Amino acid sequence: MPLLSVDRVSFKYGEQWVLRGIRFEVEKGDFLGVIGPNGSGKTTLLRVIDGILKPQEGEVRLEETEIGRLRREALARSVAVVPQYLALAFPFSVEEVVLMGRSPHLGRWRFEGEKDLRIAREAMMMTDTLGLAARDMGSLSGGECQRVLIARALAQEPRLILLDEPTAFLDIRHQADFFDRIRALNRERELTVIAVTHDINLAAHYCGRVILLKDGRIEAAGPVESVITEEHIRKAYETTVLVDRHPVTGSPRITLT
Amino acid sequence: MSRFFLFTSLFAVPAVALSVASRIEAGKAVTPMRVSRVCALLGVVFAAVAAIAAVTGPHRIDLIALLRQGLASDTSPEHTIVFSVRIPRILLAAVVGATLSTAGAVFQGLLRNPLADPYILGVSGGAAVGAVLGIIVGLDILPFGIPALAALGSFAAIVLVFGVAGRRGETPSGTLLLSGVIVNAFCTAAIMFLISTASGTRLHGIMFWLMGDLGLAETGQTSLGAAVLLAGFAVIYLHSRALNLLVIGEEQALQLGVDVEKTRRVLFFAASFITAAAVSLSGLIGFVGLLVPHLIRMIFGSDYRLLLPASCLFGATFLVAADTVARTVLAPSELPVGVITALFGAPFFIYLLKKTEAGRCRF
Q1: Average of pLDDT values for B322-347?
Q2: pTM
């Protein structure tokens, strides 16, 4: 049984359809990329998968459960999101933010116990943030902040991790660092990943499968090589690009012409 | 004991305690152990300040003599002053200070706005219209007259603000903030109108109410306020971890498992309700609800599981100290306590802001 099934999902804001008949499945251990131009529905799709938006048609299932039936807490124990950035109204330390990832596992009255502290420490170890534990979040660089957000997501012990343009504000070195870490977690721990990104080359480099959205519909889906083609990109983005092969990995690579 | 010494210790005791705590507690994660340790410390500080306040005032109290006489005797003037005048007033100040500080911490988190205070959503404006109306009509002759009208006014304001801001079961923070500001502006205009029609003899009462007056302390009313605070605090504390997550944003709170709409609704109503109770008993005491949560946050961090009880205890301490100054410094006449909270609070707050680095303060 697939870990996640998106079954003929349509969603509209007011009268405006943003997603139409989206249908795909994600198996355990997949690394799926979602690409598409601005306004194609990428972020809306992510929010539907995360249950923040309720689709008017179709349903999203986590294994056999329709996610609308899950309580937020139960959903947060299975699905974690790494956002673009963290905007804190008041100061919190790195350790406090990572421990927030344990929240869905705790009852209302419970404080974090030994087990939660251990899990948070492991998550910080995996993301090289243990040395930052006592630092204030406001004092971190963009790259460090995103590593802390991965740690928080890992502390949730999710089965599925959603990346919402997580490297939008990072330079290329930190983009690569971020996705290297996610790929390592995906390979070594069979963590299932869905990444929404603007960066087609990044998706081509790291994802196993890609979905290309255009106007709320799936324009193309499948292995990277079959989706990222000159024709698909031209249709979806209305821009001409050159697609060749990455000289080292052989994955598709786009160049603006 | 000289009054100078008493005055100094009134502020030195909490300042020294917080200074020591800021060194020990900085940057540590919140555990039940730590919450109880900080609460115990702040509880002792409160007891000390309350005791100093009880023997401070225009009438000098010989503590030794009072204790020697024993607590049973109720004939001496000292005994009457301490137990019938000062202690009821200290208790009211404690309840009001604790309530405003708790509510301020909640509103700051819910609205994700460091400028938020308990009065930001119109509770104060509604209460003031009720109270001013009551004073003008002469309802102050009834035992619960003014507080009842003030409470009525603040409930009307709460209902109005949420009615204006609510849409399809949701109450977005931005709209809520705006409708609170608008209701407050409307109430201010109404108060101005009422004041301009009031006679000279009523004006003094109105002015004192608007700047906060703890001189009307009655044990019955104080106990009612304390009961409301206890119930409200219990409800709020149940959501303290959810409040932490709301501070990082509503969407991320959802993604971390918080039922955001329900939590926000419960917290808004609980915080507004306790504020209404406090305002009804004391008038508008400014600055406490804004300052105390920030001060506690600088020293103990932003985690609401510690921030809430610590703000509650320290808010009580702060207002008791401020009120003691207000009723003593120009004796036999009294200052409105709101004057003192801002006069002493603002410079201390500025000092702490300057001492704060990367969200933590050591002073």
Answers
A1: 85
A2: 0.90
